[in-house]
Design a protein that fits this description.
With about 150 residues, the chain is of the alpha+beta class. Helix content is about 30%, strand content about 40%. The protein has helices at about 15-20, 25-30, 115-140, 145-150; strands spanning about 5-10, 35-40, 45-50, 60-70, 70-80, 85-95, 100-110. The longest helix has 29 residues, at about 115-140.
């Protein structure tokens, strides 16, 4: 099934954006798509992830962190068992120049119920991913990450 994808280029470094992405305790302060994330923060660990898509009340999913590091975060969650519905979300960063960083977001549904969920959540998912891009731009380029920890 075709994933939702966004791509944006920021005037910042990978290290600065990675501070935001990898410190899950900061999510309530800056992340509009995932305003709460609890769990061990380790690959293979189960996490409780609150998802807030525009126009939809926030909901909680159980997600496994599949990959973390080298500018990559990748989550997987299954609903009703993997054959019926699974969801993956990834954020990847690529250095494209001095103080220039490309951020690629991808969200994909798979399984028998995937077409229904993709159709029902399409607009909200696209808007939510764009809001996340804007927040990454705001905090990754100009925000003071250290002050968020105060």
């Amino acid at each position: 099934m075709k994933p939702f994808r966004t791509e944006t280029v920021l005037q910042t470094t990978r290290e600065r954006v990675w501070e935001l992405l990898s410190d899950f305790s900061l999510y309530p302060q800056w992340n509009p798509l995932f305003p709460k994330l609890e769990g061990p923060g380790t690959v293979g660990g189960d996490h409780e992830l609150v998802v807030h898509l525009p126009g939809i009340d926030p909901f909680t999913v159980q997600a496994t962190l599949e990959e973390k590091g080298e500018g990559v975060l990748w989550w997987r969650s299954t609903f009703l068992g993997r054959p019926l519905l699974a969801w993956t979300f990834s954020c990847r960063t690529e250095v494209v120049g001095d103080q220039r960083l490309k951020v690629l977001l991808e969200s994909e549904f798979s399984g028998l119920l995937a077409p229904l969920f993709r159709f029902a959540l399409a607009r909200s998912m696209e808007e939510g991913m764009e809001q996340l891009n804007q927040a990454l731009r705001r905090w990754g380029e100009k925000g003071n990450v250290r002050c968020m920890r105060c």
